[in-house]
Amino acid sequence: MKTFSYSFIFYCLLGLILLATTDGLAQVESSDSLLSPLLPPSEVIAEDHPGDAGGAIIVRWKLSPDEDKGITGYEILRSASPTAEFSSVGFAATGANRYVDANTEDSLTYYYKVVAIDADRNASESEISPPVRSSPQWFNFHLLNLLIIGGLICGAVIYFIAHAKKGKKFFLRKIAGLEAVDEAIGRATEMGRPILFIPGILDMDDVQTIAGITILGRVAKTIAQYETKLNVPTSRSIVMSTAMETVKEAYISAGRADAYSDDFVHYVTDEQFGYVAAVDGIMVREKPATCFYIGAFFAESLIMAETGNSIGAIQIAGTAMPAQLPFFVAACDYTLIGEELFAASAYLSGEPKQLGSLKGQDVGKIIAMLAIVIGALLETFFAISGSSFFGSLAELVHKLFSIVAS
Amino acid sequence: MDSFFSHTLAAILTIGIISFLYKDNPLYKFCESLFIGVSAGYWFVQQYYANLLPKLFDNLGITRMLGAENVPEGALQKLFLHGEWSEDLLYLIAGILGVMMLLRLVSRIGWISRWPMAFIVGSISGLYFITYFQSNAMRQMQNTILPLNSFNNLVLIVGTVTGIIYFYFSKEHKGLFGAAARVGVYFLMVTFGASFGYTVMSRMSLLIGRVDFLFGTWLGLVK
Q1: ipTM score of the complex?
Q2: Which residues in chain A touch residue B171, judged by CB atoms under 8 angstroms apart?
Q3: Domain closes at, from A84, A108, A125
């Protein structure tokens, strides 16, 4: 009897213990199934974004093992302390294992967590990353190839400028449009009609406008010698100021400071078609014998060129805008295409600095041609043979000219 | 009534400008002068409200100094009232350069305006060097390095290389080099022809828009 009662008590106690444990396990299981049926991402690392001016941190993680089981994306959480509340800073798509947080302050320490989320809004958090701070760098090593190639070209420019200053003569092939500049100015002088010079419709922050104003200086010097009237309507106030100074300098250097007038250069309006309406009015009323269109143009190019054609003017155009070149080629007597516009200043002046600069740019073109030809041949050999030797060489050439996205 | 008046005015101005196709006439001269005057005035106001006011006067605190209360404190207030340095103080340099430009109007000291002009041309050239080098040179070269195993790739590479040869100024275009340059010119001209045709189509659509306005919106002949 005693044995029975002890056994009974033992088994009751055992049953109670088992009941409690199983119930607890069931609760844990059910709570787990409510919170996190997913496995979390792991190995979360946050590091300062390299080669920038600060304010950005890259967060990397190992994908959740449940990546192919319905994960729709990853939410990135951030906090200033591992114990404080984390807030969301962004989302990454499924399959992504990298996120750039571009809203950090350099003086603050951050901690990150990555949360895997599925379509049912189940979430599974990773461990907290080690602390990280963003900081600016002095040098962006991703652009090292840019520095090397830019340095080669600039070095070539400096080399040739130095040689030109020593008196070495450089050969420049003939450019038809520039050969005709003197003829065009002479025509206007003989006919007693003015010369119209349009320096484009963009501001001085465009290289084509700078090239146009430089050419205006050369043309103005010749015009000053021939005492022909010059008319330069401009579309930007700073271009007007720069053109005025350039023309004035040209007249002074030609020894004709007395012939210069501020009225040669005038501002019209910033509005594109208002400007071209004014230019057309000038053309049909003053009937210039020569029209120069040198700079950046847009839709107004054909309007001006056709009007100039209708009054019988000799027209010399130069622009690097690919969409406007066809109109100038069709309507003008001579057209400087792209690079010829930038070479024009060196061509017209014959100055050592400008000639040397042009020769240096030609070195850049040789580098480009060699890179394309060699790279294409290597890619072709790799495609045909599948040899890893050619493949790695081709990749090296690609990397030399690649721009790494930051 | 208001819309009829504005439509009629727009139609008269449109016809006035288009009349230039026949020849210069008083209506065109009036429309031209009106367009230039209104656009110049509009751009002046637009530049003031888009640039001068928010970037210079508001940032420096000049607007607030003149009594505007709905504008936050500017850099000058932060410096003199609170002793705080603000990056917006750098706009003072821009303001000084702007004043130097305006000194063009005073003939005796007009030479001062050359300094801000030199600053603009020099700094813009330096800043854009990297941008243009990356986009116009490096990326173009990277995307042209392709295997010669398709017709498209062959055309792309031959067109690019011969085009560069055409723009090579240090050698006379003679012999094989000249032939390659000639091929480059052909590629350029074909490209220009295609671009011409494409652009003419878009210009036609602009004309269609104006004709639709005249005959549809104004005269109501086209529904």
Answers
A1: 0.81
A2: 171, 173
A3: A125
